[in-house]
Specification:
This protein has helices at 52-60, 78-91, 104-108, 111-117, and strands at 3-13, 21-26, 48-51, 66-70, 95-99, 122-125, 145-148, 168-171, 176-179. The chain has 193 residues and is of the alpha/beta class. It has one domain (3-179): Aldolase class I (TIM Barrel). Strands 3-1-2-4-5-6-7 form a seven-stranded mixed sheet. Strand 4, helix 2 (78-91) and strand 5 (95-99) form a beta-alpha-beta unit. The protein is globular. The two termini are 28 Å apart. Mean pLDDT is 93; it is low at 186-192. The structure holds iron/sulfur cluster (SF4). Iron/sulfur cluster binds at residues 29, 31-33, 36, 38, 41-42, 71-73, 101, 127-128, 192-193.
Length: 193
């Protein structure tokens, strides 16, 4: 059975796309963006392996408005994520936003990447470039583009690149998960995407 290597996951997120979302941060990234605040998500052997079927059921039953996939680098696990989305959508319709450190035109040249692109509604592409971090909403730096691969989120595009960033604290008893794009002056150890 196919697995997805997961860095972390969270339900009820309101800071990484429209509505209340299930957010999945996958494990593994081959880029080394200076200023990346989740270097622990880069190790391709790290994180937890979760069966696609179990994760799909959890997400489909979460009651969330949509799914946001970030990382790590989602396109290193494109085929498994495509299967995940198919399994979710067999249970219920759900919009999908994907953050990638790669560039759309590069991805179009990779056959396996097409499987995930074909199931993505909105793609936020490009590496995090610290010098271009302007503190605006829902993306890390101004080089990152919001690319509508379907019409689902086109009316929400004005959310991206607005003044200011919003972060959300989700308590988990022993720790708080802080979710959202960090402010430009970011404390060490907080999530970038
Ligand atoms: S910012 Fe994203 S793309 Fe860049 S190294 Fe970190 S996880 Fe990878």
């Amino acid at each position: 059975m196919e697995n997805i290597r997961v860095f972390t996951k969270e339900s009820g997120v309101t800071t990484l796309g429209p509505g209340r979302r299930y957010c999945l941060w996958v494990q593994g990234c081959r880029q080394h963006c200076p200023g990346c605040v989740t270097p622990q998500s880069r190790d391709e052997q790290g994180g937890s392996l979760i069966p696609v079927s179990a994760l799909a059921a959890e997400i489909a039953l979460s009651g969330m408005d949509g799914l946001t996939i970030s990382g790590g680098e989602p396109f290193l696990q494109a085929a498994a994520l495509a299967e995940l989305i198919d399994r979710i959508r067999r249970r219920r319709d759900m919009g999908v936003i994907v953050y990638t450190g790669l560039v759309y035109e590069q991805l179009l040249e990779q056959p396996e990447a097409r499987s995930l692109l074909d199931r993505t509604d909105l793609l936020i592409d490009g590496p995090y470039l610290q010098a271009l971090d302007d503190g605006r909403s829902l993306r890390g730096s101004s080089n990152q583009r919001t690319i509508c691969l379907t019409e689902r989120y086109r009316q929400d595009l004005d959310l991206y690149g607005r003044e200011g960033r919003t972060r959300q604290i989700i308590p988990h008893g022993a720790y708080d998960n802080i979710v959202g794009i960090p402010n430009t002056q970011k404390p060490k150890g907080e999530r970038q995407e």
